[in-house]
C-alpha cells in the first residue's frame, strides 16, 4: 500500500480533517498533499518531519514505510532488471587482493 493511503486513513480521516485543513496544518499547499494522498508522490524526509510534528508518528517510521513501498514496487519487476554478476579477481602478483607487508 502506498504510504499516502496511510496518511489519508491515519492522519486525515481519523481526525476528521479535510485535505485543505490537513495541508494547512502541515504547512504545505493542497496540491502537494493531494499528490501524496493519490500516490503521485512519496513521503520525502521533510514531509516525514511535518507528519511527525503534526500527528505524532515518527519521521523515521514514515520514511521506512516509504522505503518499504518503493522496494516492494521494484521487487515486482526484479526479474526484468538485468545485471552482470561480479566476479572477484586476483591481483597481478597472483595472490589475493590483500596487501602484503614485507
How would you portray this structure in words?
With 102 residues, the chain is mainly alpha-helical. The chain has a single domain, classed as 434 Repressor (Amino-terminal Domain) (Orthogonal Bundle), CATH 1.10.260. The protein has five helices and no strands. Helix 4 packs across helix 5. The N and C termini lie far apart (58 Å). The model has no long low-confidence stretch (mean pLDDT 91).
Task: Explain briefly what this protein structure is.
The protein is mainly α. It has helices spanning 3-13, 19-26, 30-37, 45-55, 59-75.
Q: What CATH architecture do you see? A: Orthogonal Bundle
User: Number of DSSP strands?
Assistant: 0
Question: Uncertain regions: pLDDT < 50 for 5+ in a row?
Answer: none
| CATH fold annotation | 434 Repressor (Amino-terminal Domain)
Spell out the key features of this protein.
mainly alpha, 434 Repressor (Amino-terminal Domain), elongated, 102 residues, 54% helix
Topology:
Blueprint: H1 3-13, H2 19-26, H3 30-37, H4 45-55, H5 59-75
Helix pairs in contact: 2-3, 4-5
Amino acid at each position: 500500500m502506498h504510504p499516502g493511503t496511510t496518511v489519508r486513513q491515519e492522519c486525515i480521516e481519523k481526525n476528521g480533517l479535510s485535505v485543505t485543513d490537513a495541508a494547512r496544518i502541515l504547512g504545505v499547499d493542497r496540491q502537494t498533499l493531494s499528490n501524496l494522498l493519490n500516490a503521485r508522490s512519496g513521503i520525502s524526509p521533510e514531509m516525514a518531519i511535518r507528519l511527525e510534528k503534526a500527528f505524532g508518528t515518527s519521521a523515521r517510521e514514515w520514511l521506512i514505510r516509504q522505503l518499504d513501498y518503493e522496494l516492494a514496487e521494484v521487487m515486482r519487476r526484479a526479474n526484468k532488471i538485468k545485471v552482470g554478476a561480479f566476479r572477484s579477481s586476483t591481483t597481478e602478483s597472483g595472490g589475493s587482493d590483500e596487501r602484503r607487508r614485507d
